[in-house]
Amino acid sequence: MIRVPDGPGSPFPTRGTPAAFGTGPLSRAAALIHTLVTVEALLLLTTAPGLAGLLLLGPDPSNLPLVALCLLPVGPAACAAVYALHHRGRDLADLHPARAFRRGWRLNAVPALKLWTPLLGWLTLIAFTLTHFTATGLPRWWAALLAVTGAGALLWGAHALLITSLFAFRARDTARLAAWFLLRHGRTTLAAASLTFLAAAFTAWLTEALPALLAAPLLLSLLHAGRPVIAETEREFTG
Predict the structure, then answer these.
(1) Contact 22, 31 (CB under 8 A)
(2) What is the pLDDT of residues 79-136, one digit of tens each?
């Protein structure tokens, strides 16, 4: 806690002057935890219908189109979460993560769906083809090509998520910028790949619910890794 000195260089506080609140490391840590917990709860709430549908679906590959339908709310919710985390307060006395989340959802729901829907459709097509690959009669190297294409689409989606959450571009412009940054900012792309692998590992080795329960910390990590993308977009492509 920092006290206000009584006159220049005085170590004693002025009587009646309130001390600054929420500037110490413990306060900042508490503010971060509060924001993460609130954003996580809102993420689960806004995606609850889709998550409930996923729990009812079996692991049969024929359910992949229904899985994609259940995942549709994830795009707008993730954008709202990134918006709220980007605009989070550092002061315990001035925290409004729920308000920021609602504003991010209201601003980004439609733009997010314009990109998230075709991305989900493309990934569903790739996954369906790979799960039925023996019936296609294609050579095996096609499977590897499809897997690489799907991974590239996921990483493109990570860049598009950052741009859509924080900037108001047309969908086609966001798609082009995301593709441009995919190779231009290799560290951000590598961080997105690491987070994607981590979420996949949680799903495969532990439980499918764990990535959903850790969505807010994962998105905060992506936001930190995407600072160069955000800074260049703001510097070069906004007025």
Answers:
(1) yes
(2) 999 999 999 866 666 678 999 999 999 999 999 999 999 999 999 999 988 888 777 7
d(CA 88, CA 32): 8
Q: What is 175-200 written as a DSSP string? A: HHHHHHHHHH-HHHHHHHHHHHHHHH
The pTM is what?
0.85
Rg (CA), the chain: 21
Give the integer Cα–Cα distance in Å for 92 and 152: 39
- pLDDT 10s digits, 161-183: 999 999 999 999 999 999 999 98
Structure-block tokens of residue 119: 């991305």
Query: Could you give the CA distance from residue 105 to residue 224 in angstroms, rounded to a whole number?
Result: 20
Dihedral angle sign, alpha carbons of residues 152, 117, 112, 103:
negative
CA 224/CA 79 separation, integer angstroms? 15
- Would you say 71 and 50 are in contact if contact means Cβ atoms under 8 Å apart? yes
What's the burial of 32, exposed, middle or buried (CB within 10 Å: 0-12/13-18/19+)?
middle
Task: Residue 49: name the closest of 35, 27, 69, 78 by CA.
Answer: 69
